[in-house]
């Protein structure tokens, strides 16, 4: 798993590449917590290069959403591949988290 971070307007875009599973989820969660605790209030997770997500990876998204809600912030999932989107849909996360087709749409002011 590779994680990137950049600012686009008021949003922090975190790109995740590879697999987000039981092996990699704790590293990803630590990265997100550091970003949120560093002042990020609008988090966009770019999933365009995320090949696979397990229940452990989904838990990280849910934990980040709860953390940001407590900080009056928001999280958006952007550009998931079809197989990742299907996992979000099956798990019911599509009803919990906004999922947009592109990072550009997710970062609009």
Task: Write out key terms for the chains shown.
5-stranded mixed beta sheet, Transcription Regulator spoIIAA, single chain, 4 helices, alpha/beta, 109 residues
Mean pLDDT: 96
The CATH class label is: Alpha Beta
- Pattern of helices and strands: EEHEHEHEH
CATH architecture: 2-Layer Sandwich
**CATH domain topology:** Transcription Regulator spoIIAA
Please tell me about this protein's structure:
The mean pLDDT is 96. The chain has helices spanning 25-37, 55-70, 82-91, 103-106; strands at residues 2-8, 11-20, 42-53, 74-78, 99-100. Helix 1 runs parallel beside helix 2. It has a single domain (2-104), classed as STAS domain (Transcription Regulator spoIIAA), CATH 3.30.750. It contains four helices and five strands; from the N terminus they run E-E-H-E-H-E-H-E-H. It is of the alpha/beta class and 109 residues long. A five-stranded mixed sheet has the order 1-2-3-4-5.
């Amino acid at each position: 798993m590779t994680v990137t971070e950049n600012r686009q307007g008021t949003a922090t875009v975190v790109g995740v590449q590879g697999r987000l599973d039981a092996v990699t989820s704790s590293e990803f969660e630590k990265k997100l917590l550091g970003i949120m605790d560093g002042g990020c209030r609008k988090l966009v997770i770019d999933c365009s290069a995320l090949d696979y997500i397990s229940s452990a990876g989904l838990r990280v998204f849910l934990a980040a959403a709860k953390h940001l809600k407590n900080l009056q912030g928001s999280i958006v999932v952007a550009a998931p591949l079809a197989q990742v989107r299907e996992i979000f849909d099956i798990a019911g996360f599509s009803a919990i988290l906004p999922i947009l087709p592109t990072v550009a749409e997710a970062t609009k002011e």
